[in-house]
Design goal:
This protein has 207 residues and is an alpha/beta fold. The chain contains six helices and nine strands, in the order E-H-E-H-E-H-E-H-E-E-E-H-E-E-H. Helix 3 links the parallel strand 3 and strand 4.
Length: 207
């Protein structure tokens, strides 16, 4: 599973157990920016360095920082400022961890423009994730996205046709630079199974 990025939820958010993800074949992890005690605003420079070191010591590298909050938080007047601040802080955390990707919920308008500008300023790639429990739709955004970036978009129809309840968010590739994200909600064993099934069915989408 070297082409896959596993969510930290696969090990219950216990980063000291990421070694088991490494043993399963995963080499990259997506860090959750909403975990209490590890939210970007709670981590100073030293704490961020310690976090990166701890992850790497487990045999995996931080590939992405996730901000799994409801998309409506970027719309409602009472939550939009806080949501935008959290997104900007997540981009900063990704830079500190040397993670190239930030996964964010769908948004538009001024919020989307502000966040994209911050991502480009810090040299990070943004993945906008939407969809349902059994499908994913991902859009890679930014002025530096290659025009020939091939996107494999998971929709309900494709998941049904392949008889696989995909927990994979997306497989996006241009010369193998786009990661494939695997949700860890079902635990590490299930995530590994899904990754292997996905790789056997669609090897051209696996880096």
């Amino acid at each position: 599973s070297p082409g896959f990025v596993i969510e930290e939820s696969a090990v219950g958010g216990n980063l000291s157990r990421l070694g088991s993800a490494h043993q399963a074949g995963f080499r990259s992890v997506a860090i959750d920016a909403t975990v209490v005690g590890r939210r970007p605003r709670e981590l100073d420079v030293g704490a961020r360095s310690d976090l990166r070191r701890m992850v790497i010591q487990q045999g995996v590298s931080p590939m992405a920082v996730m901000l799994p909050i409801p998309p409506e938080h970027f719309v409602r007047e009472e939550t939009v400022d806080r949501a935008c601040a959290a997104a900007v802080q997540s981009i900063g955390l990704a830079e500190s961890l040397n993670a190239q990707w930030v996964t964010l919920p769908e948004m538009d308008g001024e919020a989307a423009s502000l966040i994209q500008q911050e991502a480009e300023r810090r040299g990070r790639h943004v993945l906008i994730i939407g969809g349902t429990d059994t499908s994913g739709l991902v859009e890679v955004v930014g002025s530096d996205v290659p025009a020939h970036a091939g996107a494999f978009r998971l929709v309900a129809e494709s998941a049904s046709a392949l008889q696989l309840p995909f927990a994979v968010f997306a497989g996006l590739q241009t010369d193998r630079i786009f990661p494939i994200f695997v949700t860890g909600d079902g635990g590490l064993v299930e995530a590994e199974r899904l990754a292997r099934n996905f790789a056997s069915l669609l090897p051209e989408c696996v880096g």
